[in-house]
Design goal:
CATH topology of chain B: MetI-like fold
CATH topology of the largest domain in chain A: D-Maltodextrin-Binding Protein, domain 2
Strand order of the largest sheet of chain B: 1-2
Structural class of chain A: alpha/beta
Number of strands of chain A: 11
Largest sheet of chain B: 2 strands, antiparallel
Largest interface: A-B, 28 and 25 residues
Order of helices and strands of chain A: HEHEHEHEEHHEHEHEEHHEHEH
Number of strands of chain B: 2
CATH superfamily of chain B: MetI-like
CATH architecture of the largest domain in chain A: 3-Layer(aba) Sandwich
Helix content of chain B: over 70%
Distance between the termini of chain B: 32 Å
Number of helices of chain B: 12
Order of helices and strands of chain B: HEEHHHHHHHHHHH
Radius of gyration of chain A: 24 Å
Oligomer: heterodimer
CATH class of chain B: Mainly Alpha
Shape of chain A: globular
Strand content of chain B: under 5%
Number of helices of chain A: 12
CATH architecture of chain B: Orthogonal Bundle
CATH class of the largest domain in chain A: Alpha Beta
């Protein structure tokens, strides 16, 4: 058999050609920030308010790794032992922010590298989590049909709302915290919370599979009252749905969404730049204007129609952050209880 | 010579088998290992060898009910698909017309749209104030009949296409022979064609049953939060709290139940009718 011969120069050329994309990618990666984020409006607003106007002119290319929060957190755990992970930044809710901090998956933040942290409201700060946006859980109602809206969670027990109360099934643990706040002024009295929720459920509570399925139910007249985030009621109202929000007199639970920096992030400097950019007043105001989430910093005042719509009523309502350590431990049991008692057919 | 044949067999079967092991068996083995681990809210998963996740499912009447509901819906959907699909497939197989290929395309057309998109269409139809509500006053949204209708719409083309190829494989001259001996068309079908088609009908039924046991989008969107089937439950275990060990155990219980019932269905069919 004749040996097939290739000229040495040709081989070297072919090898260079094959390796070229890898070399280019390595050089490129120095200015790349991979952000694990939710898709939809959130990803679009990150692009429009942070990636394109702030990071891109500074020479940092942002790549979005779009997905849900649970797979993203799982990915962080799966990559825990790798020296180099795949995300520079992961977007998570504050509860998961607490959990991945406890699991030693993320870097404690250095204020020198994220100077805008000094503007973050003190009650929202956590050592390894940058709070990006937040919203409060409110009672919602149809302003066209409801003349006397509920002012406290126990108002939902009134027989006049029978079969007209709507909630989102996936927000069970948040609603239980609100019920606890109503019953005993803390967010963790879950036994009393369950008792109140069982009574509300018995008053013809309607459950919806996803957050955005609640708005059409208001429009069709299927429900007249419910409970959801203020930001959602803002978005729905602006989209023409008959929904208005009211802060419960017992106080509102806060939902905080933000970002963490995995310990094995490939480019931590780019991640710090990104975190600082997301706390810029212009970026914060952009999210408020389109999604109705409130700025987490003290130097991003809201003005005009957005400011009016999102302004807190006077006297200022009581806003309560969850007790993350207690909630984290209780969550599996709360979810199980909600599934078996409230979501039972 | 024998050695050459063996080498040929290995060469033909080897790559596909290796790929199968790599892509299917290996992930399943990993998932099974996960199902024996212990869940922890902070660590997510702690290495262990415990049947706790399986016992949690089997000991709890709520989870057992979910399994029973899944089996019930799957049996009903399979029965409806066979009832509707048999005459359609039979007619399609025996059609001698230039429109036949157009009819087959019409049958396949719904498969061009993703099941979630199709389910969104059903949601508009079933919703309060939707078409069905306005025309008949019926509000089927978030109820078992809506789920059954939605899954039937998805599974029916698979059932019809499988049955059509089965009927096309049966020689029409057998029916002509039966007719020549005085059998009416219905008698010829039930006494001659149907017994010959039983192995193929079993395959169509099994396909339909398996698809239904694993249905996700339709029960989630049309059944609503108070209607529970196994695949959405599995997703709940994973998404609500990242409980991989319990979700993995649910996946294996679902798989084992489906395999057992499929094997049982094959077993109850008389041996002479098996393929």
């Amino acid at each position: 058999m004749r040996e097939i011969g290739l000229p040495r120069r040709g081989l070297l050329g072919a090898a260079t050609l094959l390796a070229a994309p890898a070399l280019v990618r390595t050089a490129h990666a120095a200015d790349q920030c991979v952000v694990g984020t939710w898709g939809g409006d959130y990803a679009r607003l990150l692009r429009e308010n942070i990636d394109d106007p702030i990071l891109k002119p500074a020479g940092t290319e942002v790549v979005q790794d779009v997905g849900d929060e649970s797979p993203r957190v799982s990915k962080m755990y799966a990559q825990k032992k790798l020296p180099r992970g795949t995300m520079d930044i992961a977007c998570v809710g504050a509860l998961n922010g607490y959990r991945v901090t406890e699991g030693e998956l993320v870097e404690e933040l250095d204020e020198k590298k994220v100077p805008n942290l000094k503007h973050v409201q003190s009650d929202l700060r956590m050592p390894a989590f940058v709070p990006h946006i937040y919203s409060a859980q409110v009672l919602v109602y149809n302003p066209d049909t409801v003349k006397q809206p509920p002012s406290t969670m126990s108002d939902l027990l009134d027989p006049k709302w029978q079969g007209k109360i709507g909630m989102v099934a996936t927000t069970g643990s948040w609603i239980l915290q609100a019920a606890s706040l109503h019953e005993s002024g803390t967010t963790t009295d879950f036994d009393k919370a369950k008792a109140l929720m069982s009574k509300i459920s018995a008053n013809g509570l309607r459950l919806y599979p996803e957050t955005d399925t609640l708005a059409p139910a208001f429009k069709s007249g299927e429900i007249e009252v419910g409970m959801i985030w203020l930001a959602r009621s803002f978005m729905w109202r602006n989209a023409g749905f008959p929904v208005a929000g009211r802060f419960p007199t017992e106080g509102s639970i806060l939902y905080v969404s933000g970002m963490v920096l995995p310990k094995n992030a490939p480019d931590k400097e780019a991640a710090y730049r990104y975190m600082n950019a997301l706390l810029e007043p212009s970026a914060q105001q952009g999210f408020a204007a389109h999604m109705g989430y409130l700025p987490t910093v003290d130097n991003a005042p809201l003005s005009g129609a957005v400011g009016e719509q999102l302004a807190f009523p006077q006297p200022r309502p009581k806003l309560v952050a969850p007790d993350y350590p207690v909630l984290s431990k209780a969550l599996p049991e709360l979810n199980d209880w909600w599934l078996k008692n409230i979501q039972r057919g | 010579m024998a050695r050459t044949e063996r080498a040929e067999r290995v060469a033909l079967l080897g790559p596909a088998s290796a790929l199968m092991v790599l892509m299917l068996v290996a992930p399943l083995a990993l998932l099974f290992r996960d199902s024996l681990n212990r869940y922890d809210a902070t660590e997510l998963m702690i290495a262990a060898v415990t049947p706790a996740n399986y016992l949690r499912f089997l000991a709890d009447p709520f989870y057992r009910d979910v399994l029973v509901t899944t089996i019930r819906v799957s049996v009903i959907v399979t029965a409806v698909c066979l009832l509707l699909g048999l005459p359609m497939a039979w007619r399609l197989a025996r059609t001698v017309s230039r429109w036949k290929s157009a009819l087959v395309v019409l049958m396949v057309l719904p498969l061009f749209v993703g099941s979630t998109t199709r389910t969104a269409g059903w949601m508009i139809l079933f919703a309060r104030g939707g078409m069905l509500d306005r025309l008949t006053g019926l509000n089927l949204m978030y109820a078992e009949p809506a789920v059954i209708a939605g899954i039937v719409a998805i599974n029916l083309p698979f059932t019809v296409l499988t049955l059509q190829s089965v009927f096309e494989g049966i020689d029409p001259r057998l029916e002509e022979a039966a007719a020549s001996m005085g059998a009416a068309p219905s008698r010829a079908f039930w006494r001659v064609v149907f017994p010959l088609a039983i192995p193929g009908i079993t395959i169509a039924a099994v396909l339909c049953f398996i698809l239904c046991m694993n249905a996700f989008a339709t029960p989630l969107l049309l059944g609503g939060p108070r209607f529970h089937m196994m695949a959405p439950l599995l997703f709940w275990a994973f998404s609500s709290d990242n409980n991989w060990p319990f979700a993995a155990a649910i996946a294996f219980i679902l798989m084992a139940t489906t395999l057992l019932l499929t094997g049982f269905a094959n077993h109850v069919i008389p041996r002479r009718y098996r393929g």
